[in-house]
Specification:
- This protein is of the alpha/beta class and about 450 residues long.
- The chain is about 40% helix and about 15% strand.
- The strands form 4 sheets. It has a 7-stranded mixed β-sheet, sandwiched between helices. A 4-stranded antiparallel β-sheet has the order 11-12-15-14. The chain has a two-stranded parallel ribbon with strand order 1-13.
- The structure holds 4'-deoxy-4'-aminopyridoxal-5'-phosphate and glutamine (GLN).
- The site of glutamine (GLN) has 4 residues, from loops.
- Belongs to the class-I pyridoxal-phosphate-dependent aminotransferase family.
- This is Kynurenine--oxoglutarate transaminase 1.
- Its EC number is 2.6.1.64, 2.6.1.7, 4.4.1.13.
Length: about 450
Amino acid sequence: MLRRSGLSLGQYFLRRKNRAGFSWYFNKTKMSRLVQARRLEGMDKNVWVEFVKLAATYPTVNLGQGFPDFPPPDFVKEAFMKAVGGENIMLHQYTRAFGHPVLVTILARFFGKLLGQELDPLTNVLVTVGAYEALFCCFQALVDEGDEVIIIEPFFDCYEPMVKMAGGTPVFVQLRPKAAEAGKLMSSGDWQLDPAELASRFTERTKAIVLNSPNNPLGKVFTRGEMELIADLCVKHDVLCFSDEVYEWIVYDGKEHIRIASLPGMWDRTITIGSAGKTFSATGWKIGWSLGPDRLLKHLRTVHQNSVYHCPTAAQEAVAQAFQREFDNYGKPDSYFVQLAQELQQKRDWLVRSLVAGGMKPIVPEGTYFLMADFSEFKSEVPDLPDSDEPYDSRFIKWMIINKGLVSIPVSAFYSTPHKRNFDHFIRFCFAKEESTLKAAEDILQQWSLEKTGQ
Ligand code: PMP
Ligand code: GLN
C-alpha cells in the first residue's frame, strides 16, 4: 500500500500526522454535542465482533461462533448454483419485497402443515435477512416506549439491545439449574423455569415474551408442559410471543420440538422465526423468515419495507428449492433434517467425552449445536480479578485462545449485567464441526489435562 502510493515511510507518517491534526481541529469545533443517537448508548460492545476477531488473529481450533465448518448438502449448493447460473436471468434482479414468491409459497405449505394452520404466503410469511432481521422487525414493529419484554436467561445476546433500541425495557427471568441425577452429567433439561417466578414477571406493561427453543447457548428444548405454562400466561395477560426457532431441526435423543404457535390461543399472538442458515448449514446465506397472523406481520412488513426492503433473490430461490426437496422427503431417512440431527448428536457426544476427559463439566444439550461447560477446575490457570469490568469467563477464553489455541464463547455474554458474574464459570462450545476439528480440540484438551496433572 505504501509502495503503491509512492510514499516514503517518513512522508506516510507526516501525512497521517497532518490528517490527525485536521481531525483534532474538526473534533474540537464540531463535536461538542453527542454524536450517536441516545438509543445506542451502552451497545457498542459485541461478543461476536470481539471473539470472531480473536479467532481470526491467532492460530486456533475454533469452537466459538456458531457455524458449521462442513459444507451444506449437495442439493442445497446445487440449487444455489442453478439459481445463479441457470436460464432465469430475473433471479439476478429484485423480487417481491416481502419474499420471493416461490419461497413464501413453500414456507407457507411446509409450516402450515406443522402449525396446523392454513398459511397465506402473501400475508402470513415475511422473508428477512436472516433471523436477525426477523427479530429486529418484531421489536421495532411491536414494542413501544415503556413496554416490557420478558427474556429468559441465558438468552441469545441480541434480544436485550434490540428491545432497548425499540425503547422497551427487558425483564429477565432465569432458567435455574437443579442438581443432576447421581452419577450423571447435567442435562440442559435440568435447567427449568420457576412457574411462580415466571408468572411474577408478567405485569400490565408486558408487551411480549421472547422464547428460544431449542435455546442458544444452553441447548435446552422446552417441554410441552413448559410451553403450555408460557402460553397460558401469554393468553391470560394478552402478551405477544416472539418464538425464535432457528434450531428447530436440531433436536436430540428423540426429543420433540414444540411450536408454541400451535398451542391453543397462541397463533394469533405469536411470531415464529426461522433461519435457512441453521436449517441448511449455510449461515452465510442470511435468509430468515417470520410466520404469523397478518394483524402482526403487517407491522413487520412496514419496518422491512422501510429498512432492508428486499432479500437476495438467488439465495431465496435456492432456499425454496431446498425446502421443496425436504417437503417431499419429510420424516424419511433421506431428509436432511433427519440426517443433520443424527450427525450432530454424534458430534455432541464426542465433544462431551473430550471435555469430561479433559476435566471440564459439560451440560449435555437436548438441542442446538452448542453446549455449555463448567470450567471451574481450570480457575487456577488465570487469576481472578474481582474489580475487573470484564467477566472472568471472557478473560479465561482470551487466555485460552493465546495459550492453548482453542476458541469458545463466554456464557456471561448471554446474561443480563446483574447476573453475568453468577455464570462466568461457564463457556460455550460449538460442535457443528468436521471430525478433524473435533479431534484437534480433543488433542488440545488432552494435552492440557496432562500438563495440569503434571504427567
Ligand atoms: N437466533 C438465534 C438463537 C441464533 O443463534 C442466531 C444465530 N444465527 C440467530 C437468531 C440469527 O440467525 P441468522 O444467522 O439467520 O440471522
Ligand atoms: N448464532 C450464532 C452463535 O450463536 C452466530 C451469532 C453471531 O455471529 N452473531 O454463535
